[in-house]
Specification:
By secondary structure, the chain is α/β, with parallel strands linked by helices. It has one domain: 3-Layer(aba) Sandwich (Rossmann fold). Helix content is 31%, strand content 19%.
């Protein structure tokens, strides 16, 4: 096909003129663009001191927000009931049950609920209702200064990883990878939750006795902890919402991704230079990731992990109780930890929260010591 380059150039210049005119007519265009998910991001973030939120106590107020996927009230019943029975006062976000396609309402409304929860002096913690998709869309709309001025517990997992990583990087806030309200709040998960957010002491966290693990590379390592959903993390590579990686201990989990996609995601982290900077690595759980019915020949998940992680020569293992599984640990992002690949343990080297008055004796005795 022959192209008239002179005519194409005239149309291109005409388009530029129209764009310039539109910008002159609406002087707010650039301001609106700054709030858009597509707006340019800063090239560097200042190093911020680590902010630990206060530990939780019965009677505290917890805000429940839905920053990602749409929420059904029935899915929140068990988590809501358990938290209420523990003596917490739960306050729903204004847009908790909004719907906009697969999202829990419009971006600006989901972001407003989160900003409002951080600004409210009565709120001690923010727990996300569920994951899904949508957190990355609201990152440019969040007020990082609110989190610095009013540090409080932020808890969730899966797509909520985008928020946990961004608040850690942009605000210096210790955030928490753990159950959402729609999770199954069983005995192991609730004891782990209480251990970290209520008892709040340095402790050794490990799997329930019946759960096995697999060593990828033996050894022990120490470093600040970072936890994320693998897909969410890979999608954020190249943004300035991620922390610096030198010397970090990275824990990832995944759900519903065929092994070839896990392979692709790990290759993204490797090619971006992320994996080479780590001090340790844990692949927690990959729920519904094996694809035995595929017609194409496949690699095993173990093989893929060995291919990408073992050559790093860092302590690493597979099989931590975390992610889209019934038994979930609650892990603090930003806190220094020590890991042991052979024992599959993760030891908190510092308190994950600012401790308040000692817990009542009956709460301390109610399963917390069993977590290590």
């Amino acid at each position: 096909m022959m192209i008239n380059h002179g005519r194409s150039r005239r149309f291109w210049l005409r388009g530029l003129g129209a764009l310039a005119l539109a910008t002159q007519i609406d002087g707010r265009s650039l301001a609106r663009a700054a709030d858009s998910p597509l707006s340019p991001l800063p090239t560097a973030n200042p190093v911020r001191p680590l902010l630990r939120p206060r530990s939780l106590r019965p009677g505290d107020t917890i805000a429940i927000v839905a920053p990602a996927g749409r929420v059904a009230a029935a899915d929140l019943q068990q988590g809501w009931q358990w938290l209420t029975q523990q003596g917490f006062r739960l306050v729903p976000g204004r847009h908790l049950f909004d719907r906009d396609g697969y999202l829990a309402g419009r971006d600006r409304d989901r972001a407003a609920d989160l900003n409002r929860a951080f600004a409210d002096p009565q709120v001690a913690a923010i727990i996300c209702a569920r994951g899904g998709w949508g957190c990355a869309r609201i990152l440019p709309l969040l007020d990082w200064e609110l989190a610095r001025s009013h540090p409080k517990i932020l808890l969730g997992f899966s797509d909520i990883s985008a928020l946990l990583l961004a608040y850690y990087e942009r605000s210096g806030l210790v955030t928490f990878h753990g159950p959402v309200i729609a999770s199954r709040w069983n005995a192991f998960s609730t004891a782990a939750w209480q251990q970290v957010l209520m008892a709040g002491t340095a402790a050794t966290l490990q799997n329930p006795p019946q759960q096995t693990h697999r060593v990828i590379h033996p050894g022990q390592a120490q470093g600040p902890l970072v936890v994320a959903n693998l897909s969410v993390l890979a999608a954020m590579v190249g943004s300035t919402y991620l922390p610096q990686w030198a010397g970090k201990i990275l824990v990832v989990e995944e759900v519903g991704e065929p092994v070839y996609r896990v392979d692709r995601l790990l290759s993204q982290l490797k090619l971006a230079g992320l994996l080479d900077q780590l001090a340790g690595f844990v692949f927690a759980q990959c729920t519904r990731c094996e694809s035995p019915g595929d017609r194409e020949p496949a690699l095993s998940l173990n093989r893929v992990l060995d291919d990408w992680i073992r050559p790093l020569g860092i302590p690493s293992w597979q099989g931590l109780a975390l992610g889209h599984v019934p038994d979930k640990l609650t892990l603090p992002i930003g806190i220094p930890v020590a890991i042991d690949a052979e024992r599959a343990t993760l030891q908190l080297l510092e308190a994950p929260v600012e401790l308040r008055e000692p817990l009542a004796a009956n709460l301390t005795a109610n399963g917390l010591r069993s977590m290590g």
